[in-house]
User: Fold these one by one.
Assistant:
Number 1:
Amino acid sequence: MTFPAGFLWGAATASYQVEGAVTEGGRGPSIWDTFAAAEGKVLGGATGAVACDHYHRFPEDIGLLADLGLNAYRFSVAWPRVMPDGRTTSAAGLAFYDRLVDELLSRDVVPVLTLYHWDLPQALEDAGGWPARDTAFRFAEYATAVHDALGDRVRQWTTINEPFCAAFLGYGSGVHAPGVCDHDTALVAAHHLLLAHGLATRALAGPGHEFSLALNFAPAIPDGSSPAHAEAARKFDGIHNRFFLDPVLGHGYPPDVVSDVAFHGGRFAASVLDGDTDVIAAPIDWLGVNYYAPARVTPLADPLAPSNCPLPGLRGMDVLPAKGPLTAFGWEQAPSALTSLLEWLSSRSDLPLVVAENGASFVDRVVDGRVFDAARVNYFMEHLGAVHHALRAGVDVRGYFAWSLLDNFEWAMGYTQRFGLVHVDFETQRRTVKESGRFLGRVAKANGLGTPAEGVRDPRA
Ligand code: IFM
């Protein structure tokens, strides 16, 4: 497999999952600090208070990434570190990211900065959170503050990571912070997250920078070939994928999905004000594609029957248990669905695509100072193969980011799911590079670190 010159080969993390140091440098509390502190919300009562201690150990971590041969690091900025109360900028908070970016550049690693990966300042949640329209405007101010501080060195910007999870898991099923269980509220939150993306993209747009957002896609695979199966797939795909993608591509909310969700009480429709969909369609430069697994769907006899899948408006269909081989999380390994996803996205828009997250949790053991995670090596081999298939079919893929650089705080699952290229012993904070990290680094070094072909933009420039 050869990949295009200039391809971004990276690994990703998110602030709350790795940084720790939740009270240092004046950082304010986030919704995840509050949620994790509440009993029974996170497995084993785990929190991100220490996590990977990346706040103090980032030079070592960036050194590991660079030494592997990767050329890009996708990280997120903690809004409550930069604005402890959600509104007032903290110089100490920004200074941390200043040091982080300088460290990356000194190691020739491209910084790919995500502005929001779920750690909303608690003060803004107290003021209404994402269901409040004002939060979108506060986000644009926060984005501007970060951009003013780092825009001279950071070229690649992602506004929001996986608005699906922030809205539907945070305010719908309640398994993520802030733990609200109300589908109507979740739909309004989703709209405000997309609005926040558009407002920030408009506010920051300018020469020399590239903007994106990262959506998590779950391709719907019908478990049969009847029209009812196709309809089940339409419903799942609609609320999981197109509800977020279509407005960003400038098509507005998909009418079939809007009619599916209408029975929730109509607060969603009322929250979409004139001009909002134009804001959400602010031009971006590439789309971040987060892919882990497809969903196998089957119709129910009664099209109005409740679904076993807790998403707004989903009725008349169920999601079936994943088919093997599975990851430790129980997620299906289906690399070919990644190829079809990339091809489908490319058929819908000319935007360049970056696989912004892809990876798997497995049970890893350190033996004699090494981690032979053969299952994860195989996972990366197959999924890179899938990306390569898409490239050969003419899809414009510009990069691949493994989730994650480090084993880390896996949200409601605490520290029980290890996704890292680097093993972290959470007792000692000792890092051990896994075989999969070496594998990915070897592929990166053998590919795409050269000068882009004529006419191809160098994402690192
Ligand atoms: O850990 C998460 C990440 O924060 C967002 N995407 C999926 C990953 C694995 O669950």
Number 2:
Amino acid sequence: MKLHAPLGRRILAIAAAAAAIAVGQAVPASAAGPLKDITNRYVGSAVAAGPLGSQADYRSVLTREFDSVTPENEMKWAVVEPNRGQFNWSGADAIVNYAQQNGKSVRGHTLVWHSQYPNWLNNLGGAELRNVVREHINTEMGRYRGKIRAWDVVNEIFEENGSRRQSIFQTRLGDGFVAEAFRAARAADPSAKLYINDYNTEGMNAKSDAMYNLVRTLKQQGVPIDGVGIQTHLATKYGYPSGFRQNLQRLAALGVDIAITEADVRIPLPVDQNKLNQQATMFKQIWDDCHAVSRCVEFTTWGYTDRHSWVPGTFPGEGAACLFDSNLRPKPAYTRINP
Ligand code: 9MR
């Protein structure tokens, strides 16, 4: 676990910033020190192997500010096993190696998901698919055993109304595929914390009720689940989800950890000061709600810079959803959290 030593580190950081100015080096984004040093939660970002390998500035701000990384796409099934039995670990290896060399924690993402799985799975019947899923969990978790702090074992299994999404895993394996995945995951790497992860489960609503009920049932059944990932893809136009903190509290009361796994707050383009301030308020609310719940152990954003973000490609007319702008300068959202 992270140690909690913000005050001493702040004083050191202020001294370091003053020294940096004196010798003309790059100044940290905050005089208080990097984000990772002002909290005892893990502070993470999704990362892409491409820029991590090719852009020194992207890598250096990431290294300075964060102590956890989540591969944005590199560990997804379609990427690691595009054809049956043919593996590609290059991106995942690069990120895990970066983490090991730089003392970063890794969040593995993600093992069983209805999206970005390889086409060849579609040809498999239930019995074979069940074996293949177990094998996939074994192979991928086994490869990185001991190097991944937490895994998103199953991802996005609910519809907005709280019913199960009719993925191939659901329709061919039945409701029990979730418990089976967690049991396989525990066996594959007993040192990893095992999470279920989803979006639009921030506030109190039908989908987060379904998540709560499922986790309660899994715990009652002794299924090895350690945590719930709350993705937290927000938009200023929808405002802050009501009951966010209450939802985190009820999940924590089930005896699981909580992670904010994919936070971003998109705004309608073009950006202006008012919109950036609204965004800052919402990011700070996420930060505060996580810190209000002792079992909320991680605050991870889905990319840290507007230079690399999934948002503009998915929501035309919206963007600028990250803590840093595309020139890696901290935005008001960053300084609201870390003044
Ligand atoms: O950011 C990811 C993007 O590059 C991919 O094209 C996309 C494919 O579906 O997945 C994005 O990441 C998603 C994450 O894996 C799961 N939660 C939602 C994220 C944003 O779509």
